[in-house]
């Protein structure tokens, strides 16, 4: 699942979402009043657990080296998927008659990075990391001052910069909001960005963020991500050069910042919660050095299709998507990415396999797209959406798989279709799920906008009705809550995301069956799915090139 500094990490959101699912009653599942057609039964029977297990194991194996974008393991994974497509008889839909659509990327690695406090040099990757701004090398220094949250707001009679000139200084601060300001109000006003920009405009030489324990993402977590290699598009612009470097410091490192201030870190954090807070001079100089090594390279989407059976409708297609990339190899460690998202790719390929073995093919064509670069910014799906190898105006819908492995905790009893409320695909999901006795619930956390954070949204932006499936188990919620939390702490986007011996593969099979049958119904329908008039995307046409305004 996509994590990037520009957007918030998805796991925490999905975890909260899943926990809210367990708050729902699983005792009442959908009544199976609908039935599958003979062809749909045949399709479901041809979706094989063995295929899902085999592909998940192959893609998350050590020799795939974590399927990193712009790394040899990523190329190997792309070729493996292309070979599977070829053996299934899918027709190539990549560059020059191949299954691969090559994309140019840029890799950015911190080559010389330093954060020095007084005489102490902190350790990069454990004690600190820099926000990857992609705006040139930095070498700055100055006296340090702690300004709590950097708030300047007359409405609450608070000025965290009272009596201090931050020009040329290294400013130490906290991610908001303070405990006496509601999180929702803070986010709505985009307060963190407002006060950060204010500090930059006032000439702060650098910004150093420390933790207070209530952050959505702790400094330790952000240090883990921001110290990794970064991937962007070759011409992607970062912040303007005048934007100061941002440093995230661990709790251990934060203690050193206050060592000569006369105020303990604990007391400083307590003072920061009061509206009458006064800036604290830390009586030490800090130096920040950020130098980056930039390398250009390529990775590939993998795309093939099964031709439809109807003379005219076969010009239209149903798109199935899943990202195959993970975080690759870093510092000798392999980030296997079994749940996120080797499993999703395996489920998608199992659907392709089932369709390939059907004697009678659906009316519309079926496109299977395994994308790269998702973890760094949905790059692969955005690229295909902008440079599609099929007429985007004739793509009926996109069905996307991207998760954290909740479908293999136990048999799937509940499903969320992210985006179901926006198009006629939502009603279809209800009908298909009813056959399996699965309860469909709406996104219980719409304010977190998970719908906008995976590959399907790249196609929404082009006007294609799209949906992402997430399956979850029933049963004792305490068991699954603990399992999810443990996985978050130790395995999410870490080397520990590997296949577990207790995975319930029948859950993955169910997700694949739901996806396949929905795709079959779309492929055989008289007309393509449509946006609902109640949706903010209701007026979008396929092929849209206009930027969609951010939802307020």
Secondary structure: elements and pairs:
Elements: H1 10-22, H2 38-46, H3 49-59, H4 72-88, E1 91-92, E2 100-117, E3 120-121, E4 128-130, E5 138-146, E6 152-153, E7 158-159, E8 170-174, H5 183-188, H6 191-201, E9 206-210, H7 219-226, E10 230-232, E11 246-249, H8 251-257, H9 265-271, E12 280-306, E13 317-323, E14 328-330, E15 333-335, H10 338-356, E16 365-371, H11 379-386, E17 395-401, E18 412-418, H12 425-435, E19 439-440, H13 456-460, E20 466-473, H14 477-490, H15 505-524
Parallel strand pairs: 5-8, 8-9, 9-11, 13-16, 13-17, 17-20, 18-19
Antiparallel strand pairs: 1-12, 2-3, 2-10, 2-12, 4-11, 5-12, 6-7, 12-16, 14-15, 18-20
Helix pairs in contact: 1-14, 2-10, 3-10, 4-10, 10-15, 12-15
In words, what does this structure look like?
The longest helix is centred in the last third of the chain and has 20 residues, at 505-524. It is built from 15 helices and 20 strands. The strands form three sheets. The chain has a 16-stranded mixed beta sheet that branches. It has a two-stranded antiparallel ribbon with strand order 6-7. It has a two-stranded antiparallel sheet with strand order 14-15. It has a domain at 108-293: Glucose Oxidase, domain 1, CATH 3.50.30.30. It is elongated. The chain has helices at 10-22, 38-46, 49-59, 72-88, 183-188, 191-201, 219-226, 251-257, 265-271, 338-356, 379-386, 425-435, 456-460, 477-490, 505-524; strands spanning 91-92, 100-117, 120-121, 128-130, 138-146, 152-153, 158-159, 170-174, 206-210, 230-232, 246-249, 280-306, 317-323, 328-330, 333-335, 365-371, 395-401, 412-418, 439-440, 466-473. With 552 residues, it is an alpha/beta fold.
């Amino acid at each position: 699942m996509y994590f990037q500094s520009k957007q918030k990490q998805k796991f925490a959101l999905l975890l909260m979402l899943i926990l809210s699912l367990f708050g729902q009653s699983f005792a009442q599942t959908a009544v199976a009043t609908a039935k599958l057609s003979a062809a749909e039964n045949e399709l479901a029977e041809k979706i094989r657990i063995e295929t899902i297990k085999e592909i998940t194991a192959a893609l998350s194996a050590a020799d795939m080296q974590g399927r990193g974008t712009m790394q040899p393991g990523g190329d190997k994974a792309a070729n493996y998927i292309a070979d599977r497509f070829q053996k299934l008889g899918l027709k190539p839909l990549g560059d020059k008659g191949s299954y691969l659509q090559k994309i140019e990327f840029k890799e950015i690695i911190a080559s010389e990075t330093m954060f020095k406090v007084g005489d102490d040099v902190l350790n990069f990757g454990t004690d600190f990391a820099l926000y990857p701004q992609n705006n040139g090398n930095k070498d700055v220094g100055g006296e340090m001052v702690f300004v709590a949250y950097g708030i300047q707001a007359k409405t609450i009679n608070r000025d965290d910069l009272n009596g201090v000139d931050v020009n040329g200084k290294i400013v130490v601060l906290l991610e908001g909001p303070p405990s006496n300001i509601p999180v929702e109000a803070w986010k709505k006003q985009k307060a963190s960005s407002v006060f950060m920009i204010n500090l930059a405009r006032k000439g702060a030489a650098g910004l150093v963020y420390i933790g207070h324990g209530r952050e959505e993402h702790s400094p330790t977590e952000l240090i883990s991500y921001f110290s990794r290699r970064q991937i962007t598009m070759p011409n992607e612009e970062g912040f303007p050069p005048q934007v100061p470097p941002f440093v995230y410091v661990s709790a251990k490192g934060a203690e050193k910042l206050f060592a000569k201030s006369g105020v303990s870190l604990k007391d400083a954090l307590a003072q920061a919660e009061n509206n009458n807070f006064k800036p604290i001079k830390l009586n030490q100089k800090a130096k920040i050095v950020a130098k980056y090594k930039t390398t250009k390279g390529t990775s590939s989407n993998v795309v093939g299709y099964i031709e439809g059976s109807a003379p005219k409708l076969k010009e239209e297609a149903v798109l199935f998507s899943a990202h195959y990339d993970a975080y690759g190899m870093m510092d000798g460690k392999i980030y296997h990415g079994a749940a996120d998202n080797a499993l999703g790719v395996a489920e998608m390929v199992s659907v392709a396999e089932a369709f390939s073995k059907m004697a009678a093919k659906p009316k519309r064509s079926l496109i299977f797209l395994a994308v790269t670069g998702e973890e760094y910014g949905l790059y692969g799906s955005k690229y295909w959406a902008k440079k599609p190898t099929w007429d985007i105006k004739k793509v009926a819908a996109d069905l996307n798989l991207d998760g954290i492995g909740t479908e293999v905790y136990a048999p799937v009893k509940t499903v969320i279709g992210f985006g179901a409320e926006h198009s006629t695909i939502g009603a279809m999901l209800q009908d298909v799920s009813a056959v399996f006795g699965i309860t469909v619930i709406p996104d219980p956390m719409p304010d977190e906008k998970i719908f906008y954070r995976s590959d399907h949204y790249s196609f929404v932006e082009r006007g294609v009705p799209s949906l992402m499936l997430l399956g979850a188990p029933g049963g004792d919620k305490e068991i699954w809550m603990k399992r999810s939390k443990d996985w978050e702490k130790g395995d999410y986007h870490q080397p520990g995301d590997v296949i577990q011996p207790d995975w319930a593969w029948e859950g993955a099979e169910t997700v694949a069956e739901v996806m396949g049958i929905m795709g079959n119904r779309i492929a055989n329908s008289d007309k393509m799915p449509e946006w609902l008039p109640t949706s903010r995307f209701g007026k979008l046409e396929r092929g849209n090139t206009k930027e969609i305004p951010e939802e307020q």
